[in-house]
Write a structure and sequence with these properties.
The chain is mostly helical. It has two domains: 3-41; 62-131, no CATH class. It contains five helices and no strands. The chain has helices spanning 12-20, 24-41, 62-72, 79-93, 99-126. Helix 3 packs parallel to helix 5 (99-126) and helix 4 (79-93) packs antiparallel against helix 5. The protein is elongated and about 55 Å long.
Length: 132
């Protein structure tokens, strides 16, 4: 491992990939160390940021809309909307569904995912997640 990368924080996806490539003994060691770090520093207060204000261009492609929505809602795990967004893209590209209609539906899809994230966060807060 290079020392120039030692200060870079890995994404959760990169950590998942590392974890999945480990044997059970290494996985247990990693979990033990994560528990140790958690008890040493305590939980961070998680905040859900508001969506970015990225206006919808007048002329936008479906792919452009997906990129804009991913930038507008960076807090949403794109895998949570991937299946539905892919189906909408297919409807437009293969079945000829109206571009504006598909983009409108994609915007609703991301907005609903954001609202679910907020609701889950509020439920976690009201349930006192630190009381486990």
């Amino acid at each position: 491992m290079s020392t120039s990368n030692s200060r870079n924080v890995k994404s959760s996806q990169a950590l998942i990939e590392l974890y999945e490539s480990m044997d059970d003994e290494c996985k247990q060691s990693l979990c033990d160390f994560a528990d140790f770090l958690f008890t040493r520093s305590g939980p961070l207060t998680k905040e859900i940021p508001p969506p970015e204000d990225i206006p919808r261009p007048e002329a936008e492609t479906v792919v452009g809309a997906v990129k804009r929505l991913k930038s507008t809602y960076p807090m949403i795990d794109s895998m949570s909307v991937f299946s539905q967004a892919s189906a909408l893209m297919t409807d437009h590209m293969v079945k000829g569904r109206d571009l504006i209609e598909v983009i409108d539906e994609m915007e609703l899809l991301f907005e609903k995912a954001y609202n679910r994230l907020l609701e889950d966060f509020r439920q976690d807060q009201s349930n006192g997640t630190d009381s486990e």
